[in-house]
């Protein structure tokens, strides 16, 4: 009996295959990088522990460290075992050896240059954990980590007021998870926007850099489409961007607004969510969730607008950071100052 020839892949099916293949490669690369970083940090951690236990301090212990650096570099010339780095390894161990396990696990898989930034720029262990987790989740380079620290992303996250109705519209466990998944503010600095744009252009730029946007949204999001068409009662409706979140098992509609939040945006999103639940949601999925992403919001305006809405909706701000030239100058100046004061680490 001859085998049936499978039908050729459609263009959409092939695009999905490419997307999945790219995702698999990126995931593998991240895992490999984390394993390499973890091995390196383990060596640095153990060296730092050894130096700490010998109670060596800068000043009287400098001669010992200088000689140790010379001897170790003769044996391991490519490991970056300069006196400055040896002192940093000691600081690394002493900073975190009594810290929470989650924090130690987070810094253990960061590149050494990232860890030096955290050591040199931050005092609060809560802030270190925040930036370490953000770096791991979003794949931040050292420059982007430096930029986030300079902009006090941790402080801004602490001050943010949750503007959503998840507690009133979702089951308790589902609401708690949604509260963890969605943020009050999203950083769209990766778009490189330095002047005003229209909503459609903002959407098009996000689509062009959809992988970066998904990283900013967080883990678990899959992109379905933009200007997603919903047809009901002879009328067409279009959702700016539609995602699916694997953990929440929910469709997620995102509406982009260039200006400040307005109450009428909630009514429109409520309609979209009703249509998604009626037309798109499967029986095994949870209610669809809406996020209104705007340039600015007043939490009191949002609170009153959501008061009698029965669909889960959140309102978030986006930040476009600094103009590109100013951002590059800020980073270069900071890196130069760091190198002059502490020496450039060898990674």
What does this structure look like?
This protein is of the alpha/beta class and about 350 residues long. It has 2 domains: about 25-150 and about 335-340, no CATH class; about 155-320, Trna Endonuclease, Chain: A, domain 1 (3-Layer(aba) Sandwich). About 55% of the residues lie in helices and about 15% in strands. It is built from 15 helices and 6 strands. A 6-stranded mixed β-sheet has the order 1-6-5-4-3-2. Strand 2 and strand 3 (about 235-245) form a beta hairpin. Helix 5 packs parallel to helix 7 (about 140-150). The longest helix has about 45 residues, at about 10-55. The chain starts with 10 loop residues before the first helix and ends in a 5-residue tail after the last helix. Residues about 340-345 have low confidence and may be disordered.
Supply database-style keywords.
347 residues, alpha/beta, Trna Endonuclease, Chain: A, domain 1, 2 domains, 6-stranded mixed beta sheet, 6 strands, elongated
Estimate the helix proportion, in percent: 55-70%
Poorly predicted regions are: 342-347
Q: What is the third-level CATH name, the topology of the largest domain?
A: Trna Endonuclease, Chain: A, domain 1
**What is the radius of gyration?**
25 Å
SSE string: HHHHHHHHHHEHHEEEHEHEH
Shape designation: elongated
Number of strands: 6
Describe the main β-sheet briefly.
6 strands, mixed
Question: How big a fraction of the residues is strand?
Answer: 5-15%
| Architecture (CATH level 2) name of the largest domain | 3-Layer(aba) Sandwich
- Would you tell me the structural class of the helices and strands? alpha/beta
Tally of domains: 2
By CATH reckoning, the class of the largest domain would read Alpha Beta
